[in-house]
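User: Before I run my own analysis I want an independent prediction to cross-check against. Here's the chain; please return only the structure tokens and, at the end, one sentence I can use as a sanity check.
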Amino acid sequence: MGFFPFFLLSLLALYPSFSNGEMKPKIGICYGQLGNNLPTQSKSIQLIKKLGAKRVKIYDANTKILNALKGTHLQASVMVPNEIITNISSNQTLADEWVKTNVVPFYPKTLIRYLLVGNEILSNPPNTTWFNLVPAMRKIRWSVKKFGLKRIKVGTPLAMDALESSYPPSNGTFRSDVRDKVIKPLLRFLDRTKSLFFLDVYTYFPWANQPDQINLDYALLAATNITYKDPVSGLTYTNLLDQMLDSVIFAMKRLGYPNIRLFIAETGWPNGGDIDQIGANIYNAATYNRNVVKKFMAKPPIGTPARPGVVIPTMIFALYNENQKPGPGTERHFGLLYPNGSYVYPIDLSGETPESEYPPLPKPTNNEPYKGKIWCVVAEGANRTALAGALSYACGQGNRTCDPIQPGGKCYKPNSLINHASYAFSSYWSQFKKSGGTCYFNGLAVQTAQDPSYGLCKFPSVTL
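Assistant: Structure tokens:
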């Protein structure tokens, strides 16, 4: 026997689950629907195909989407909603009914390959759903077998906060509050069923939290002369994503499961955000996502330092900028496409377009933290009825938050809903930002660097 066949057999012995022949490099797209201005489901599937994606992940079991996927070659991941996990965990009949209703009518014409039970369950505050997660997965898995859905794997996507330690990668360790009762049973289930560990992993957030400690190019997978050597494993890293992925691999190994494959269920970079959110711009988003495509579509596969040469299926988040996503502005700016279907920046998820063929990107202007004052004011086109409720909320939370807009106050005139709400939003935000308050108000408010003060009326501000 020559060296190469022997070497190959040795690899298969070390990594038996990695030899699964169906795994080929494919980039997918996460198709979120939290927008009131998005294209139809059938149009969206056409746009996904145009992007060159080979997989699609949806956050429910939307009938119109699953019908639109029939006859395409897009492999689909479908999600069991968080709110029914507890009921399903103790009731096989309910699990059977869910699979029979949401999967069986579409399979196999729609290439449903993965059923994801819940979404980032362990990122929620402590609750009983954590401990019902794996029992629910077992029930769904039993239903899949019952209905003869042979090519479907069952998993659950977790975020990086499932770890309590990720640095250095060799020190990767799952959280102690879920390690024994959730993670170990989960890994046992994934190993026994030959499923995958689905991971939502974003280099943007650790970089944005420590931009003075983490090099931006290293986070963007664009570094050319920056490396990090793990002092324990001796492995050398050239980008932050590999570090994060390997920390999960080492955490699984620490619990006795070294061979479970990774599936990147979400990754991406925001193309825009609020004034106080560093590095959220088109240049960085395009750079990161193009580099992700280049890395995970490479032939032969690159893998990670801990698992070189291994294919890692990958989903980029997200298809659209979704205007109804709650939270900071970045949450509404992860899309590859605007809601009208046009590209935020050119990208080819098939990996066939070389970097040299892309046009120049707009230079970033917010890669350094913003320094100065910011105000929170009413967003253009805000619903008047909802605005009145938000005004009442803001005025009811703080310590004399809205005194200046009361009759006789310095900001009472002009006596308009928009003027009073803008003052209330700025006053509320200035008081509560440090304790987690946001300038959002269900999409009714936006940040501005332009001082809305006038005359004797001085709007409170946040200083960065």
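Sanity check: Residues 312 and 385 are 48 Å apart (CA to CA).
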